[in-house]
Structure formats: structure tokens, C-alpha cells
Amino acid sequence: MPLTIQHDDLLPGRNFIGGQWREAQEGRRFDVTDPATDAVFATVPDSGALDAAAALEAAHAAFASWRAVPAKQRAQILRRWNDLVLAHQDDLGRLISREQGKPLAEGRGEVAYASSYVDWFAGEATRANGDVIPAPVPGRRMFALKEPVGVVAAITPWNFPAAMIARKIAPALAAGCTVVCKPAEDTPLTSLALVRLAEMAGVPSGVLNIVTASRQRAAEVVDVWLDDPRVRKISFTGSTPVGKHLARRSADTLKKLSLELGGNAPFIVFDDADLDAAVDGLMVAKFRNGGQTCVCPNRVFVHSAVHDTFVDKLAARVSALKVGPASDEASQVGPMINARAVEKIERHVNDAVERGAQVVVGGQRLASMGSNYFAPTLLVGVDSSMACSMEETFGPVAPVTRFDDAADVIRAANGTPFGLAAYFYTRDVRRVWRLADALECGLVGINEGALAAEAAPFGGVKESGYGREGSVHGLDEYVHLKYLCQGQV
Questions:
Q1: CA atoms of 370 and 368, how far apart (whole Å)
Q2: Where is the Aldehyde dehydrogenase domain positioned along the sequence (predicted)?
Q3: d(CA 59, CA 173)
Q4: Whole-angstrom Cα distance, residue 118 to residue 103?
């Protein structure tokens, strides 16, 4: 049975611009499909430059009044939004699972995760404190104030359609910014539903605007925002090539940027590790959302002394994973988002096998289930020449590489242009701090596979981008500092 929701008002099916739900000005729409079946189950506006410009006009017009709303009132609106998100958790979870494919338990869990960011930044709205600076000479008073940057353009990915919207929009609104948003073309319905709840919570007209667009017209929408100097901030989660394009295009108007881009996370298991805990951590980090996460371990390094034991334990767990559609509550791994994703996974597995890797578990499409299913896979004998070591697979494939020397594995872990997340398991306290210092990344899991939390700064280094989301630092991405100097005191 397909997943259905109880509250049809969560499916407005239109753009939200200037406090009104509107069709695209050129009247186009595009299909939303269920990745479990490839069946079309909804349509949304296929927006273009005219719609993007209208959204920007509305956000720009609303900025002066929204920034003047006291922080406490902005916080109250965010808390009402959060209450509504939690009240509709089951419907939102079903909607996520229907359009994105992740198991229903994960869909519901993502709603709670999204809620945590709205709640967090409701609190941070009232803590955007500045500084009183000791004056170097008599007769002066010196201050540094935090002010909202202005209109923010948020561009969100398909793998966490609720959490990424919340992680960008909540701090923007908390800081006093207004927002234009384009959700991913594969998962627009969840984003529209969250904006509908924000409207119900009392977000004023023009403060939050969202336009949907197909893959073919996405650049047309975003280019309007990149070229207009009234957009002062871009927040993007997605691929490194697109992030680089946004950075180049933003240079002409010197926009502030937050870019959370690709990853190639190492997962290192030392010979003194608690192997059962390491397997548990890898299962959580690797197979959540079918491996379609930016912090997903993409390279698994296991010390030779424990390699075979670890692989045996991991193989048993991977073999036991239940693959199926989100409509089956027992499913642990759902379909991939689309055919392109499956083709990439298959290419990586075939390349590894052709270069000498061995398949322990899985390794093939599950065509009998549908066109977007791929079996959870465990590979051994993987080396750095293989595509799965150099590129982000973004699928349920765990490629294992042996190592013997700590210095060698650190070099291998850092031997990538990316630097988002890294994980390692060891009982040696001295090694913990040596590795934590040596790994070139923004997030480190030490004997832990679940990293993200609203109170923690999320973001990468190198070609994984810059800027941080969440935590006390997340609000700073949406403000700038103004220095005041008063003389003749």
C-alpha cells in the first residue's frame, strides 16, 4: 500500500511567494515520483526566472520589517513552527519516505531531527549578543553589534528534505533575515509542507518564500538570486562541483556563503578496537538512508590483525539487512533516489571487482524489487586506485581496505580533496588525541558512528566546503558585525 497522509493541507502543491500560494507564472509543472515504484504521485510548479524574481522581491520588501521584530517575538514564531512540526510528525515522516524512499522509521526520525534545529535556533534568536569593547583612549565607548545579513537564498538537497530546510531556514529567520528557497527537484513536497506549517505558525508575508523547479530549470531560478546584489547570503548543501559554481557566481556581488559539499569519509578500525562497537557504528553511519548521506563512511580501513574477524561480523550484519519500500515497516534499506544513483553505485562496484576487489555480500541490483534498488554490499581487497575510494559512492556499499601502520592509514585517510567527516575506533587514549589532531576534516567520530546534533557545528574543510550549521556558531553564518564608536563621552 502506498504511504498516505491524514492532513491534505500539508500538500499545497504550489509556490509560496509573498504570503500567497501561487502557480508558476508560465504555468509549467513537473512530476514527483515515488522511488520505490517510479510511479508519479504528485506534481509541483516548474518555476523559472520570473518566479525566482517575484520571490526575491517579496523577501527584499519584507526584510526591513522582519529585522525590526524583537528577537523574542521571532523566537516565539519559531517555537510555534516547531510545535506544528512535531504535531504533524507522522504525516511528515510518511511524506519524506514516499518521495525520498527512506524507511518509515527514518522518515519519522528525520522530522524529529529537523525539529531539533528549529527549537535550537528559537533559543539562539535571543542570544545574538554583541560586545562592549574596552576603549583604548578616554572619552569613547566602543561596541560590536550583530545584524542580519539580509535576504538569504537557501538551496537544499534531496537526501534530508526536512532536516536541511530546517537547518538553513531556522537560523536565518532567528537572525532576522528573510529567505528565498529552492528545494531539490526529487523531494519538493516535504519542503512545501514545512513552509505551510511555518505559514500556520505566523511567519509574516514575504519573510519565507519557496519556489520549486525541475532539474532542467533549476539553474534559471538560482541564477536570478546569484546575479542580484539584494541576495546577501547563499546557503547550499550538495555536490562540490555545484558549490564551486555558486562560489564563482557569487563573487561578483561578494555574497556570504555557507557550502556543505561532498565527502569521502574514512572509517578506521584499529587492532585494539571494540569490534562489536565498531561494527555497530559502521552499520549506523554507513547504511542510514541507504548510504545516501554526506557523512557516510566511504572508505573503511581495518587493521590486518582484526581484519578477518571484523569482516565476518560485518558480513553477518549486512546480510541481515531488510531491503524494501518504506510502506513496509520492516524495511531497513529503501530504494535509491533514482536510476542515476543506482548506475553510479553499480559502476563503482564493477570497477572495484575489475581491479581486484572481492564481493563478500551483495554487489548487484535488486531488479525484481524495482529499478532503484541495490543490495547492501560489502567489498574487501579495496585499494586507492578504485573509483569507490576516490569518489563518493552515495549508496549502500562498504569497501574495506587492510592497513598495518598508523602513519600510513592517516595519510590514506587524508589523501582526498574532501574533508567533511572521519571516524575511528580505538581504546588507546593517546591515539585518540593524536588522530583527532591529524585528521583533516570538520567532524570526527571517536568510537561513535552517529555524529550530527543540533548543538554541534556541522561542516567541512578543503573541498567539502566552509561555514557551519547548527550549534552556537550556526547563527553567525546569518549575521555580520557592525562596529560602533561613540566619542565625546
A1: 6
A2: 21-483
A3: 12
A4: 23
Q: Which three cell numbers stand for residue 411?
A: 595519510
Segment 278-306 mean pLDDT: 97
Query: Within 13 Å, how many C-alpha atoms sit on residue 302's CB side?
Result: 26
Cα 372–chain centre separation: 21
CA atoms within 13 A on the CB side of 395: 31
What is the amino acid identity at position 189?
L
- How far is it, in rounded angstroms, from Cα 26 to Cα 254? 31
Identify the three-state secondary structure at position 324.
coil
- Maximum CA pair distance of the chain? 80
| Predicted pLDDT at 2 | 67
Angle at 177 between CA 175 and CA 181, to 5 degrees: 120
Q: Which of 124, 199, 260, 469 is catalytic?
A: 260
What's the mean pLDDT when you consider all of the chain? 97
Asked if the model's pLDDT at residue 477 lies above 90, the reply is: yes
**Side-chain half-sphere exposure of 228, counting CA atoms within 13 A:** 23
How far apart, in whole angstroms, are the C-alpha atoms of residue 144 and residue 153? 26
Report the alpha-carbon distance of residue 330 to residue 58 in Å, rounded: 45
Residue 260 bears catalytic tag: yes
Show the cell assigned to 246: 555558486
Mean pLDDT of 374-400: 97
Mean pLDDT of the region 74-98: 97
Amino acid at 470: G
Mean pLDDT of 92-111: 97
Going by C-beta distance under 8 Å and a sequence separation of 6 or more, which residues neighbour residue 68?
Answer: none
Gap between the Cα atoms of 364 and 49, Å rounded: 41
Interatomic CA distance for residues 402 and 407, integer angstroms: 14
3-class state of residue 214 by DSSP: coil
pTM above 0.90, yes or no: yes
Cell (9 digits) for 94 = 510518511
270 by Cβ neighbours in 10 Å (0-12 / 13-18 / 19+) ranks as buried
Backbone angles phi, psi at 318, to 5 degrees: -65, -40
Beta carbons within 8 Å of 8's beta carbon, 6+ residues apart: none
Q: Looking at residue 458, what DSSP letter applies?
A: B
Gap between the Cα atoms of 312 and 378, Å rounded: 10
